[in-house]
Amino acid sequence: MSDEEHHFESKADAGASKTYPQQAGTIRKNGYIVIKNRPCKVVEVSTSKTGKHGHAKCHFVGIDIFNAKKLEDIVPSSHNCDVPHVTRTDYQLIDISEDGFVSLLTENGNTKDDLRLPTDETLLAQIKDGFAEGKDLVVTVMSAMGEEQICALKDIGPK
Fold first, then answer.
1. Which stretches of 17-146 are assigned E, i.e. beta strand?
2. Segment of 8-17, 75-84, 95-104 carrying the highest mean pLDDT
3. What is the spatial distance between Cα 68 and Cα 47, in angstroms, rounded to a whole number?
4. Is 90 exposed, middle or buried (0-12, 13-18, 19+ CB in 10 A)?
5. Which residue, 33, 94, 101, 156, has fewest beta-carbon neighbours within 10 Å?
6. Count of H helices and E strands in the chain?
């Protein structure tokens, strides 16, 4: 046969889907939806009546949960839409590096060092100021579709 060695490097996760299907007519305001391959929070839903050609249509207006861009989509209400699995996790802030990455303490005692500081100016200022003052800070990290971003901050008192 062949005396070559084969090395397979897996870069995938455990095969869990990043989204799940949900009927368009059942998606409500403040829910989540995937528009143009971006996870979005639904801020407006309007439904049109069934026309000459059948389906009632849902018009979704969503705000991208990571970059705050406004996206719109129109889907027949009987069709399925992708809904992202959105999770929020709290981590304790340990350190902020020079290049804008944060070091976070996970629940099992490991560190998570692959997250950047948020782009939101007010949240960024709160994190930097609180850290400079030596406060114990807990950041909330929102993750969806393989992306993660710090979305909230809690002050749990001085160190």
1. 19-23, 32-35, 38-47, 57-64, 70-76, 80-84, 87-96, 101-105, 111-116, 135-144
2. 75-84
3. 24
4. middle
5. 156
6. 1, 11
Structure pTM?
0.77
- DSSP secondary structure letter of residue 125: H
Separation of alpha carbons 117 and 125, rounded Å: 10
Q: How far apart are CA 71 and CA 73, in angstroms?
A: 7
Q: Which residue is associated with the tokens 């909230």? A: 152
Domains and CATH numbers, the chain: 19-84 (2.30.30.30), 87-158 (2.40.50.140)
The C-alpha torsion from 134 through 136 and 65 to 45, rounded to 10°, is -130
Could you tell me which residue, 15 or 108, shows the higher pLDDT? 108
Query: What is the total residue count of the chain?
Result: 159
